[in-house]
Design a protein that fits this description.
Alpha-Beta Plaits; alpha+beta; 71% helix; 7% strand
């Protein structure tokens, strides 16, 4: 008898647990739909909120896309960090040719171009005012030069490569301007920090926007919340609809931000392409890929949930049934 009663009680607990889980899941599905419908019933206010959130999300992302393209090697073809290797031996000598072969085989070197003594003289003579000066020499005073374009774009890496080349046989001097590389790296580092700061600030702004929007909704529904709490509704139960409201506000704002970003890139693509062509560069602003788009939507939804949770948790503590 006792074993039968015990088994029956366990079975009932299992049924109750299953029923509660089904009811909890059904409640979430209902809120998922009903909160969106409620928001859509106020299209004017909803559109303004989505627009503000969309602008706040799109601005740092647009800046990050531009910075990403600037940071990549394709854009630096405008000012390639080439170095000049001055030879201490004739350019047609075996030592110079062996050096040229080693440089072309090196994985750290992108391009190599040999400028012979005669080619250097002809190029230098073409410059205004230098032809007569060079004619005063009985022999060609200019050495052979090997122009090297490193694959590495980092200033420290290029310096290391220059030191390695300077120690090779047949090399008199290695010259390259690393100052602009250091300045460019410093500027990019500053821009990255500014971008991170803007991302944090705009994310905080989105949280505040959603929190303030839901605060007004909570005040309008204060009476309903007090009645729900009076009949035993927990804070999490009362908070749940507002969490879904925050989700839809953040997700909708991210969706609008996606269209703002794509439209802005489409609008800027023509002028940017013409500017890149004038510098013989393949620089282009690339649109968000699939993974980045999903990340944007997830970020908007997460900020919406976070903003609603912080706001609702704070104000629900102040609302108690009388």
């Amino acid at each position: 008898m006792n074993e039968s009663a015990t088994g029956s009680g366990a079975h009932l607990r299992q049924i109750n647990r299953t029923d509660r889980l089904k009811a909890w899941s059904r409640h979430h599905r209902q809120l998922f739909r009903s909160t969106l419908i409620t928001l859509l019933n106020q299209p004017g206010a909803l559109l303004i909120t989505w627009l503000v959130i969309g602008i706040a999300l799109s601005l740092p992302i647009l800046l990050s896309l531009a910075l990403r393209e600037i940071s990549e090697a394709d854009t630096r073809q405008v000012i390639q960090p080439a170095m000049s290797v001055y030879l201490s031996v004739p350019s047609e000598s075996e030592t110079a040719q062996a050096l040229l072969k080693r440089l072309r085989a090196s994985s750290a070197v992108g391009e190599v171009r040999l400028i012979t003594e005669q080619a250097a003289l002809a190029e230098f003579s073409s410059l205004a005012g230098f032809g007569d000066v060079l004619n005063a020499f009985s022999e060609n005073p200019l050495p052979g030069i090997i122009e090297v374009v490193p694959r590495e774009r980092d200033g420290a890496g290029i310096k290391l490569l220059a030191q390695q080349i300077a120690g090779q046989d047949g090399v008199d001097q290695v010259s390259f301007d690393a100052a602009w590389l250091e300045r460019l790296s410093a500027i990019l580092g500053i821009l990255e920090r500014v971008l991170y700061a803007l991302g944090v600030l705009f994310s905080g702004a989105v949280i505040l926007i959603i929190g303030n929007t839901l605060r007004l909704t909570i005040e309008n529904q204060r009476g309903e919340i007090e009645i729900t709490k009076l009949f035993g509704g927990s804070d999490s139960f009362v908070q749940r609809p507002f969490i879904y409201r925050g989700f839809w506000l953040g997700f909708g704002g991210a969706l609008l931000a996606f269209f703002i970003i794509q439209s802005s890139l489409l609008y800027l693509s023509g002028p940017v392409e013409r500017l890149a062509q004038s510098y013989r560069s393949n620089f282009a602003l690339e649109a968000l890929n699939f993974g980045e788009s999903i990340g944007l939507f997830a970020l908007g939804a997460l900020l919406g949930i976070l903003g609603s949770w912080v706001s609702v948790w704070r104000y629900l503590k102040q609302i108690q049934p009388k």
